[in-house]
Amino acid sequence: MSGILVFAEHADGAFKSTATELIGKAAELATALGTTVTAAVLGDAPAADLGAAGAAKVYQAAGDFAAYDTGATTDALAAIIREAQPDIVLATASFAASDAFPRLAARFDSGMASECTNLTIEEGKLVGRRPMFSGKCFGSVTVSSSPALFTVRPNSFTQPASTGGAADVVAVAWEATSAALTVVETLATDSAGIDLTTADKVVSGGRSLKSVENFDKVIRSLASTMGAGVGASRAASDAGYCSHSEQVGQTGQMVNPSLYIAAGISGAIQHLAGMRTSKVIVAINKDADAPIFEHATYGIVADLFEVLPAIDAEIRALG
Ligand SMILES: Cc1cc2nc3c(=O)[nH]c(=O)nc-3n(C[C@H](O)[C@H](O)[C@H](O)COP(=O)(O)OP(=O)(O)OC[C@H]3O[C@@H](n4cnc5c(N)ncnc54)[C@H](O)[C@@H]3O)c2cc1C
User: Are residues 300 and 221 located together in one domain of the fold?
Assistant: First the structure.
C-alpha cells in the first residue's frame, strides 16, 4: 500500500474547484511523506487534466454517476481503492463523500476522520484537525488503520498553481454489489447561483429580514454584488424567506468560506455549528449583546436595513 488517493468530484464536464484544491494539498502532503498522489474519478470527465493540479495517475470508473447513487458510488470507489492500494484516501466533505466514505470505512474495516479543516504531517503521520461538539473545540485525529479516510471541508486550502502536466489514466472495472437504493427522480434545488457549500463568500440573513421581499432586496442583492453564496438561519428558511437548501447550521448546510456575513442572526449554537470555521465573520445586529458577536471577527451594532444597502452601494461604486 502506498500513496494518497483523492476522490475528485465533477459536474457539467468540469472538475469542481474543491477537487483541485484537495489534490493540491495532497501533493504538498505527499512531498512531506515521500509518496505520490493519485485521484479517483467516477464517470465521464477529463481525468488526465487532474495532472495539472498534482495527480500523477487517475483511476477512472466508467458509468452514469450524474444522479448520486449510494451503492454505485461506494462500489466504484471501493474497486478503485482495491486497485490503487492507497495508505490515505481524501475527499471533500461533500454530500456524496459524507455518505459514501463511512460505508467505505466499514467495508475496509478502516478508520475515518470527517469534516477536517486542516491536514498536517506529524511524526510521519497524517493528522486531521476537525471541529467537535458543534465547533466548540477542535480535535487532532490520526487514523492507525489503512487506508485512512479523511473528508475535508471546502475552502480549507488554496488552489494549487497549475503544473501544466497530464495524468496517466487507468480504467477500473467495478461491479454493482449493493442495490439497496434506487434513484427514482432528482429534483433541482430552488436556489440559484453560487453553490453555498463551496462558496468563498457567504451573505446570510435571519428572522429579522421579516419577508421574502426584504430577503431578496437586501441579502440576495448584496450576495449578487459580491459574487457570494446566499445563506440563512433556520428561522428565516422556516418562515419561507428563502429555500431550506440555503439554511446554514447543524440541520442545514456546513459552510467554510473566507468571509461570512451574518445579518440579523442572533448566533444560536445550531447556527454556529454550520459556519463558525469561516475565516472572517462579520456580524450585523441591533442588539449589542447578541451571542454572534462573541464569534465575529468584526461586529457592527446597527440596523441591517441601513448597513447592508450601504455596503452594497459602496461595492457597486468601486465597480
Ligand atoms: C434541533 C435544532 C436544530 C436547529 N438547527 C438549526 C440550523 O441548522 N440552523 C439555524 O440557523 N438554526 C437552527 N436551529 C434554530 C436555532 O436554535 C435558532 O432558533 C435560529 O438559529 C434563530 O434564527 P435567527 O438568528 O434568525 O433568529 P433570532 O434568534 O430570533 O435572532 C434574530 C436576531 O436579529 C436581530 N435583529 C432584529 N432586527 C434587526 C435589524 N433590523 N438589524 C439587525 N439585527 C436585527 C435581533 O437582535 C436578533 O439577534 C435549530 C434548533 C434546534 C432545536
Answer: yes
